[in-house]
DNA sequence: CGCGGATATAGGACAAGACGAGTATATGAG
DNA sequence: CTCATATACTCGTCTTGTCCTATATCCGCG
């Protein structure tokens, strides 16, 4: 369960509330790598506390709701360390666009092109977001350098998709054989 | 729900049983694009039948269990066509390795390298599988060409990951700044 | 003065996917 | 004769992820 360990990781850097984790960690630094929704974070924090990997303390705040600040325990640090050390299986490739393309021969050229171009633009936007992130974090520490590798990985994946889509678009524009009756079977 | 449409897509090519879909379609041609387990496929077929997108007929087989063969209906073809035409959002980037790397600065060089190298090997294996698939399907039809684009996409993603990981491995070997006390905080 | 946005937490509902176990029968290898 | 394998289908539970709602207060803006 990667989310558990992502939370342990962030808490090991700094004790935080659920709200902090959502807004400062997941919506900012982990945005391009792993997203998590609020409900998920609170649920996970409860579970982690039950299994003794984090503890919480209430910090009263005059006027506004108490902060419930979570911190990792020793057991939590051990769990994090263990997870960090072990290699995990590749994420299963599960891409709606590729699936569409598997059956995309049934579409006429213009619709096929629309599909490819929309995806291309999506990756382009993702790449720009990543570039912004990369611009912000420029430090010389080990942590910053490793974190920079993370961004590089995400960026190179986006770039690969863009290049591939550009090639695919060219090939469709250059002309594909017309389809026999696949479209007919689908439209009728 | 992409799985629904993947099933509709395969059935539109050829009526099949759940077993056929699992072994001939998902474990073979869609393997590199979308995986599905058996239970999932049977459940989805039931649901699709209830909503009138597929129909089934029992084909008795002497000795062994009846084949329950599903076929798309007109409504099913329409649903498939509609899904094929509309662009879908990019798959969220959710990669355990990238997440590990986010906190990977706490690891010593050798463990960091082990992580990167394992992942590299994984992508290498995936790429080889894809190459085998690409070798098999060499036809001149529109469908085959579009399907070939699908494989190209999957391959270029794998290649991008390999290149990135090679670069990252080199950079770690070339020497990263030592970490302050992050490791200490984790080990103690 | 009211309204919305930021801060802060928590609950329910639900689809989708992962995982595993169970039930048949037939064929063929050892 | 047994064991593995292929064919074919069913059930159940757990985890994930998403969405929506509710509760509270404070601050700034118009």
What is the gist of this entry?
Two copies of one chain form a homodimer. With 188 residues, chain A is mainly alpha-helical.
Question: How would you describe what is shown here?
Answer:
The structure is a homodimer of 188-residue chains. Chain A has 188 residues and is mainly α. Chain A folds into 2 domains: 2-85, Winged helix-like DNA-binding domain superfamily/Winged helix DNA-binding domain (Arc Repressor Mutant, subunit A); 96-187. The first copy, chain A, contains 8 helices and 2 strands. Chain A has helices at residues 2-13, 18-29, 38-50, 74-85, 96-102, 109-136, 142-174, 182-187, and strands at residues 54-59, 67-72. In chain A, strands 1-2 form a two-stranded antiparallel sheet. In chain A, helix 2 crosses helix 3. The longest helix of chain A has 33 residues, at 142-174. The first copy, chain A, starts with a helix and ends with a helix. The relative contact order of chain A is 0.10. The interface between A and B is large, with 81 and 82 residues.
């Amino acid at each position: 369960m990667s989310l558990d360990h992502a939370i342990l990781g962030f808490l090991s850097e700094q004790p935080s509330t659920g709200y902090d984790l959502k807004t400062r960690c997941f919506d900012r630094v982990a945005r391009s790598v792993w997203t998590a929704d609020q409900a998920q974070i609170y649920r996970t924090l409860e579970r982690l506390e039950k299994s003794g990997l984090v503890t919480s303390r209430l910090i009263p705040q005059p006027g506004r709701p108490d902060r419930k600040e979570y911190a990792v325990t020793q057991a939590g640090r051990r769990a994090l360390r263990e997870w960090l050390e072990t290699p995990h299986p590749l994420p299963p490739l599960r891409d709606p666009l590729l699936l569409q393309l598997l059956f995309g021969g049934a579409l006429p050229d213009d619709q096929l092109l629309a599909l490819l171009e929309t995806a291309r633009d999506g990756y382009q936007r993702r790449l720009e977001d990543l570039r912004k992130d990369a611009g912000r974090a420029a430090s010389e520490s080990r942590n910053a350098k490793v974190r920079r590798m993370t961004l590089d990985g995400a960026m190179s994946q986006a770039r690969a998709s863009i290049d591939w889509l550009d090639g695919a678009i060219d090939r469709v524009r250059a002309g594909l054989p017309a389809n026999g009756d696949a479209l007919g079977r689908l439209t009728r």
